Amino acid sequence: METEVSGVRINYMRYVELVGTMHVSPESREEVRRTIEEKRPDAVALELDEIRLRGMIEGRTPSLADSLKMGRAGLLNYLLSAVERWMGKEFGMTPGQEMLTAYATASKLGIPVYLIDQDIRITLTRLLNAPVEEKIRIGADVISALLGLGTYGGEAFEDDVNWLMKEFRERYPYMHRVLIEERNAVMAGNIASIVRYLLMSGLKRPLVVAVVGMGHVRGVGHILHSGNIYKTTALFKTD
């Protein structure tokens, strides 16, 4: 569905500043804090859903026993969380700290915070339907990465993000669609909803700072720029 106002399609990027982060990078955490404090936006949007935010705030990490009670989706979530925690040790920061910093900074300044990502349960369920060959391939690749990831630093990852995304799309086309493309569409749709709400509230030039992983910046930005908004979820506004 193309979004138009008075017959003119909206370029939502006029009202949005995308902050691309690496989820285990201390530099990303500081960039997020600095951007929100300097820009003082009308809203902050985070690449999170309610379940993940509450887990971060409460410091919960899924145990293997609890994850197994949730079946295959729970086990998959446990494995993904374990890989993220390992990467966090390599880079010196707990995964997701930049999102908590954005949440805390916006809350301190009285700026509304919106959670724009797809429900993690939907994403995990979709991932379980990945082709067997992709599951085998990514399992082998994760093991290889765990054995050799320490040779890479945050800057190398940041510089090579576009190349890495291209490699990911080629090696895991289904997983790329679920983890990147589908979520790009959801997040862009939700950001557009925030912009429309602010415009209807009477703000002539609202600003939304959206904090997303670097791998989502190009896709989300393209959708917002084009105005081709076609997929949204129920927005969750934090207290």
Comma- or semicolon-separated keywords:
single chain; alpha/beta; about 240 residues
Explain briefly what this protein structure is.
Helices cover 61% and strands 10% of the residues. It has 11 helices and 7 strands.
Strand portion = 5-15%
Low-confidence stretches: 1-7, 86-93, 149-158
Which outline best applies?
globular
Largest sheet: 5 strands, mixed
Taken together, the total number of domains comes to 1
What does this 3D model show about the protein?
By secondary structure, the chain is of the alpha/beta class. The chain has one domain. The protein contains 11 helices and 7 strands. The chain has helices at residues 26-39, 50-58, 64-69, 71-91, 97-109, 120-127, 132-148, 154-159, 161-171, 173-200, 214-226, and strands at residues 4-5, 8-9, 16-21, 43-46, 113-115, 208-213, 236-237. It has a 5-stranded mixed beta sheet with strand order 3-6-4-5-7, with helices on both faces. It has a two-stranded antiparallel sheet with strand order 1-2. β1 and β2 form a beta hairpin. The longest helix has 28 residues, at 173-200. The protein is globular. Residues 1-7, 86-93 and 149-158 have low confidence and may be disordered.
